[in-house]
Specification:
76 residues; alpha+beta; 1 helix; 12% helix; binds zinc ion
């Protein structure tokens, strides 16, 4: 297990944002991804809502967890 306080190399996925990611936004596009496919964006505190809403408004299944958490699948 790697220490939780390791080098902060995980950055927010929001364009132009260089803040350290503290959230992971897991999602998939039901039209092109099978049910066991999970895409993950990383987000800082400021942008986690933006990214989740961006996906939710497209009717994509979304699950938000702390960064580093692995999600097997995102419920549709
Ligand atoms: Zn950000």
């Amino acid at each position: 297990m790697i220490g939780a306080e390791g080098p902060a190399t995980e950055r927010c996925s929001r364009a132009g944002c260089t803040a350290a990611a503290v959230w992971a936004v897991h999602w998939r596009n039901p039209r092109i991804h099978s049910e066991d496919r999970v895409k993950t964006w990383l987000a800082c505190d400021e942008h986690v809502e933006y990214l989740r809403d961006y996906l939710a408004t497209r009717d994509f299944p979304v699950a938000v967890t702390a960064v580093g958490v692995t999600v097997e699948r995102v419920a549709g």
